[in-house]
Amino acid sequence: MKVLILLAHADDESLGAGGSIPYLLSQGHDVQLLIASDGIIKMRKVQDDNRSSLDKACAILGIKNYKTLDFPDQAFESIPQAQIVNAAMEELDELPDLIITHSSMDLNQDHRIIHQVAKIIGRPRKKPINILGCETPASANWNGKAFPAQLYVDIEAYLEQKLTAFAIYTHENRTFPDPFSLEGLEIMAKFRGMEAGVKAAEAFEVIRWNGL
Q1: How far apart are CA 98 and CA 208, in angstroms?
Q2: Nearest to 54 by CA among 74, 36, 39
Q3: Cα dihedral value 78, 80, 85, 86, nearest 10
Q4: What percent of the chain has pLDDT over 90?
């Protein structure tokens, strides 16, 4: 199965799918990661560069096929949507069977734009394409919405990889009880696992599901 992980920012892959990615790779699936931003955050008092952290996180998660599309972080609204779609499509050697992207419920505007981009790429014109929205910690809740946890992936065997990958992003790590903390991520994984009847899980919104 060809899987496209299409996300806005470097660190989103670890936050939202850092357990599911190594699971998919362990099952022999072809996983490609596209990060829409350039990995450089200019919205803070000190400019943060997450590009080297992305390289290290991908190595931890086992992702060999990954690239940034180099759009300005936290400013996707200034780019024509078609331009982002075309940039992503140019990186695909074939249409995916599954796209993992952001939820439409997220507060972050970049996330919501990439959600729309993924739905455009995933239009079933040539083949059916499944689309799942991953859970960014607290992003839906901060938007006054509940994340629609509709599909779960058991990540007990990959939880440490997820946490280790996110720990690489020193600019993004916070202290508990911030949800962007290692303890917060672990608690969320165990909470979603409890919902699914396993020890740790990642939850996904079903945007389109045709079966595998």
Answers
A1: 9
A2: 39
A3: -120
A4: 92
Checking if the pLDDT of 46 tops 70, the result is no
What's residue 44's pLDDT? 64
Calculate mean pLDDT across residues 34-46: 84
> What is the phi/psi pair of residue 201, to 5°?
-150, 160
Residue 148 has φ and ψ, to the nearest 5°, of -80, 85
The answer to whether residues 185 and 107 touch, using CB atoms and an 8 Å cutoff, is no
Measured distance CA(108)–CA(93) in Å, rounded = 29
Rounding to the nearest 10 degrees, give the CA dihedral for residues 212, 166, 147, 110: -90
CA geometry: angle 111, 28, 26, nearest 5 deg: 75
pLDDT at residue 43 greater than cutoff 80: no
Q: Three-state SS for 22?
A: helix
Amino acid at 129: I
The overall pTM is greater than 0.85: yes
* Model confidence band, residue 142 (pLDDT cutoffs 50, 70, 90): very high
Q: Which parts of the chain fold into alpha helices (H)?
A: 12-17, 20-26, 51-61, 81-90, 109-121, 139-142, 159-167, 182-196
- Domains of the chain and CATH, by start: 2-208 (3.40.50.10320)
Task: Give 86's contacts (C-beta < 8 A, 6+ positions apart).
Answer: none
- Whether 207 has a pLDDT exceeding 90, the answer reads yes
